[in-house]
Amino acid sequence: MSKPVWTLPAELRAELDKRWQRGQILTESLAPSGLFPLRIPLKSPSPAQLAADFAAVQV
């Protein structure tokens, strides 16, 4: 089985942790600048990749 092409939960946590460490999330609560709703791009597999690794998609 190959590595998934889509965004993993650990990658989302890492992105949120990076923003927290920079102080962006806490700063937003004190002085809103439009950070929320937070947009984080998600990677998704192509139809061909879904068909090739269908067992991983069903998990």
Describe the fold and architecture:
By secondary structure, the chain is mainly α. It has one domain. Helices cover 53% and strands 0% of the residues. The protein has four helices and no strands. The protein starts with 8 loop residues before the first helix and ends with a helix. The model has no long low-confidence stretch (mean pLDDT 89).
Based on the model shown, name its key terms:
single chain; 59 residues; mainly alpha; 4 helices; DUF3322; DUF3322 domain-containing protein
How far apart, in Å, are the first and last alpha carbons? 13 Å
Report strand %: under 5%
* Quaternary state of the chains: single chain
Radius of gyration: 16 Å
Mean pLDDT: 89
Specify the overall morphology: elongated
How much helix, percentage-wise, in residues? 40-55%
Number of domains: 1
What's the number of extended β-strand segments?
0
Order of SSEs, N→C? HHHH
Annotate the secondary structure layout:
Layout: H1 9-22, H2 24-30, H3 47-52, H4 54-57
Concise description?
By secondary structure, the chain is an all-alpha fold. Helix content is 53%, strand content 0%. It has one domain.
